[in-house]
Amino acid sequence: MKPNLTLALVLATISCTAPSLRAQETDPAKIASQVCASCHGPRGDSISPAFPKLAGQRAEYIENELRAFRDRTRGDPMAQAYMWGMTSQLGDEEIKRLAVFYSQQKPPRGKPASPKLAQTGKSIYEGGIPSAKVQACASCHGKNGEGNATFPRLAGQHAEYLVKQLVLFKDALRQGSNAPIMHDISTGISFEQMEAVAAYIASK
Amino acid sequence: MKKILPLNPRRATTAALCALLVGLVSTGTAEAVPSYARQTGIACQGCHTVFPELTPFGRSFKLNAYTIDNLPQVQGISSSKEYELLLNQVPPFSFMFQTSFTKTATAVPDGAIPDANGQNGQVLFPQQASLFYAGRIAPNFGAFVQMTYDSQGGAIGLDNTEFRYAKQVPSVSDGLTYGFTLNNNPTVQDVWNSTPAWQTPFDQRTSAAPVPGAVTMIDGGLADLGTAGATGYVWWRNSIYGELGFYRSSPQGFSHANGNAGPLDSTNAAGTIVGYAPYWRVAYEHQWDRNSLSVGAYGVTVKVSPEAQPVGSPTNKYVDTALDGQYQFIGDENIFSLQTTYIKEKQTLDATFAATGSENPSNDLKTFRLGGSYYLRRTYGGALGYFSTNGSSDALLYAPAALTGFANNSPNSNGWIGELDYVPWQNVKLLAQYVSYTKFNGASKDYDGSGRNANYNNTLYLLGWFAF
Fold it and tell me: Would you call A88 an interface residue with chain B, using a CB distance cutoff of 8 Å?
């Protein structure tokens, strides 16, 4: 017992100060299934619109947002309640691997929207709202909502979640990263227009 | 606090008096603990609609043995990179304090002086105060340990306690989690708020007013016995749950005549479980959008040797079978939930009947509860519920006695509960609750044979509940 106790103490001390020994925790599939899946669903296809779908999301976007949660530069209410705690111990390497893991998952299927809403939403998504100086979403988020680099994939996302983010951007409650761009854009969109464009891109 | 209700039917009357004095009827479910917030870094609303009720994420956290952990760790790692130690550097302790005011429609008679009444309007400060350690204690292994000071008992004791191991099997499609628990009260390990240990709404009740005397084993009788058990469970595809386990007697404060903590014998006042009481639980949950709906069944079979009988034979046998259901809608602004359970107990009273403690060799007892609650912005809320217990009449088991007796020899009680809640911060709850009895211990009028009506026990209960 006594020799092992000494060894255990030494190992424990080393472990506190040598994060590279935490090899097990960097397996992204393990973290995703054991921790993230509780809210974001198995492989990132969440059920509740309170939690965004991550499956097939842009790796660069996920990486940015996880860092923003960890560094507390993104502080909208749900981010504070859940993600500040969840990311507090994540290392840069783990964040990268998680982001890649989710980007490789099969993107979610779209949820059909009512034709009228989808029509209105499509014209906003592809043409913007010139009268309100709102540029077309497609110019950054891609023709089919597939995203581009740090601009996230929107296709197949929960419509309710997308509307909520637009409202948060408009109220300047969501900060960090591309939030200033989104704030300017969403200021010109009415709530009904938000619902329409969200319903359209959620159906893709 | 565990429910402590009359277990041995033969002692229903005197035990019911104890029930009034000792502090009964779920006086403090406290699964919600800031310990978990400290460990995970997640605000209370992550795991709870409003404490103590669990969200789907909260259920998942519990089913995975409370191990989601975002605190710096003290680690021990083997040469094959397996964790041998994983201890939070900062221990996740937390504290709970409850203070309350209780008033009944008509004052309760004085315990010693005839024709006098006790004070009506009881302040308890605290009603209960608890210290918790709750969180991960080893890889894949977590604990929920509650030590409670109860004002009525005036002492600190071990309250609802559970140790749990859980592991995920990722190779199984859509995930399979399996686990084992050690706990001291069947359903304390359950994750739905429709089963007795963590039932909502009305999880908090006064310990300073009369309550109906008859209760089934799984609804509090077993907590009175003092039990310890082990169970194993599986949770598949985030929707299908199955659990099986066994319980033995493990009372606190028992001392054998030889001066040791055991063995349990005829001097065990609570009665002793004979053999291994099996407990089972199945449930199915479906989630869609912001909704979740679960339906389930659970039960326990217990054989008890009462006090003053040799342990082993004769026994009273209780077979409890129950159904339960829960619905939740968790929106950003509005939260609505509904819980219900129906418990049916078959009592075969070989021991009590042989000792002329019961009129019938067997009886049954059934309990039904339905309650719904609503919260706006997790701040302003209310709840409404209906409760009912009915069962076989038995002149010896349910006898008249002032305040706590049964003039009609019937255990039947039913009524309504209403509650208003104000949650100014996520870890502070203020509530006003009113319990209205249509029937109490078998009758509406003169239920005890001494002139007390059921509605005399209608109770106003104000509670301040602080968790930090």
Answer: yes
User: What pLDDT, in 10s, does the model give residues A95-118?
Assistant: 999 999 999 999 999 999 999 999
Question: Measuring CA to CA, which residue among A144, A150, A136, A1 is closest to residue A64?
Answer: A150
Assembly ipTM: 0.82
CA distance A177 to chain B (A): 23
Question: Would you call A22 an interface residue with chain B, using a CB distance cutoff of 8 Å?
Answer: yes
B236, containing H or E segment: strand B227-236
Q: What distance in Å separates residue B39's CA from the closest CA in chain A?
A: 9
Facing B74 at nearest CB: one of A16, A38, A84:
A16
Find the distance separating the first CA and the last CA of chain A, reported in whole Å: 62
Determine the residue of chain A that is closest to B329 in CA distance: A48
Q: List, for residues B112-147, the tens digit of each pLDDT value.
A: 998 899 999 999 999 999 999 999 999 999 999 999
pLDDT tens-digit readout, A50-100 = 999 999 999 999 999 999 999 999 989 999 999 999 999 899 999 999 999
* Amino acid at site B387: F
Q: Which listed CATH number (2.60.40.60, 1.10.220.10, 1.10.645.10, 2.40.160.10) goes with B9-467? A: 2.40.160.10
Interatomic CA distance for residues B296 and B235, integer angstroms: 13
Residues of A in contact with B79 (CB under 8 A): none
Identify which of A8, A37, A39 has the shortest CB distance to residue B175. Answer: A37
A-chain residue closest to B174, CA distance: A42
- Give A-chain residues touching B379 at CB under 8 angstroms: none
Distance (Å) of CA B397 to CA B6, B11, B349, B355, B449: 11, 8, 11, 12, 15
pTM, rounded to two decimals: 0.88
Which domains does chain A show, CATH number per domain?
Answer: 23-103 (1.10.760.10), 115-202 (1.10.760.10)
pLDDT, tens digit, 9 for 90 and up, residues B363-378: 999 999 999 999 999 9
Segments making up each domain of chain B, as ranges: 9-467
> Does position A22 have pLDDT exceeding 70, yes or no?
no
Q: Do A81 and B45 touch (CB under 8 A)?
A: yes
